[in-house]
Amino acid sequence: MRTHLTWIIPLAIVLLAAAAFFGVSLYRQLTASVQVTVAPGSGAPVEPAPPPSAEVTEQVAARLREAGLNEQPMLGDTAISGHMQRLAAGEVDADTLLQYAADLDRLNRFSTEQGGSIPTAFWDVRSKEMAANGWDEYTVVRQIAVPEAEPYLLLLAQGYGRFLRFKAAEAAGEDTALDAALDIFAAVAVYQEKMSPQPEPVDDPAAVKGRADAMLMVWQSLVAGSTRTNPLTGEPLFSHSIFARDNVGTIYQYDVGQEMSIAE
After folding, report:
1. How far is residue 233's CA from residue 210's CA, in Å, rounded to a whole number?
2. Which domain holds residue 82?
3. 143 domain-assigned
4. What's the predicted TM-score (pTM) here?
5. In this structure, is residue 261 part of a structural domain?
6. 180 with 166: CB under 8 angstroms?
7. What is the pLDDT of residues 35-70, one digit of tens each?
8. Do 214 and 23 form a contact (C-beta atoms < 8 A)?
9. I need a labelling partner for 34 at 20 to 30 A (CA). Which of 54, 125, 141, 209 fits?
C-alpha cells in the first residue's frame, strides 16, 4: 500500500496543479477579448482641453442624456453632472464624450436586442480598480463596444436577461434561482466553446479538468463576481480585475437604483 502511495500522491499533485494552471490560463483566454485590449486611460487629453462653447456643451449634455445616463450620481456612476464638470475643467474633451455616448448607444441597443437590457449607468463607473490601472469608463466602454468584444457582451446580455426573467417570476413561484443559474451556466458553455473550441478527442485529464474549472470561473464571475480571497491572508487568490463588476447582481442594482447584497 505504501509503495502505491509513493507514486499516486505525487501524480495526483501534478494533475491537480496542471488542471489549476490550465483552468486559470483558459479563463484568461476566455475573457481576453476584452481584458487584454483595454489600454491605459487614453480618454482624457494629456493637456487640458480648451473650454468648449456653450453650444458644444449643450450638444454633449444632450447626447449623454439620450444615451441614458443619470443626471446625478446614484451608485458610484459619474452621471451627466460629473462628465460636464470634467468637460468644463478640461479633463476630457467633447469628442471623447460624444464617442462615449455613441458607444453607450451601441451597448444599449445590443443588450436590448438580446433580451437583457443592461442599464446605461452600470457602464458609467470608474472603479478603484480601473483608476489604479490607469483605465477610465471611456476607454473600457470603447473596447467593449467594438465588434471583437461582441461574444463577451452577448454573454453578459444573455445572463442578465435570464436573471431578469427569474426576478419577474420569482414571486409567483414560477422560477427558481437554481434553474436560472443552470441556464446561465449553459450560456457560459456556449461562450467557452466559441472562444476556445475543444479539440477532439480529449484524452488529457488535466486539460479536461482545466476546461471545467475555467468554465466554472467564468460562470461564477457572471453570477456573483469572481474575486476569490484567501481566508488566511485576506489576499486575492484570483481576480477578474476591473471586470469583477460584470455580474448580474451588480447590473441589477442599477436597474432598481439601490445597493443590494448577492443574497437579495
Report:
1. 25
2. 2-256
3. yes
4. 0.75
5. no
6. yes
7. 334 455 554 455 777 888 999 999 999 999 999 999
8. yes
9. 209
Residue linked to cell 485529464: 205
In a domain, 263, yes or no: no
Q: Answer yes or no: is 116 within a domain.
A: yes
pLDDT tens digits, one per residue of 193-249 = 887 666 655 566 666 666 677 777 777 878 876 555 544 445 554 455 667 788 899
Higher pLDDT, 40 or 255: 255
User: In degrees to the nearest 10, what's the CA dihedral of 190, 152, 28, 33?
Assistant: 120
**Total number of domains constituting the chain:** 1
**How is the chain classified by DSSP, letter by letter?**
-HHHHHHHHHHHHHHHHHHHHHHHHHHHHHTHHHHTT--S--SS-SSPPPPPPHHHHHHHHHHHHHTT--SS-SSSB-HHHHHHHHHHHTSS-HHHHHHHHHHHHHHHHHHHHTT----HHHHSB--HHHHHTT--HHHHHHHHTSGGGHHHHHHHHHHHHHHHHHHHHHTTTS--HHHHHHHHHHHHHHHHHHHSPPPSS---HHHHHHHHHHHHHHHHHHHH---EE-TTT--EEE--GGGGG-SHHHHHHHHHTS---TT-
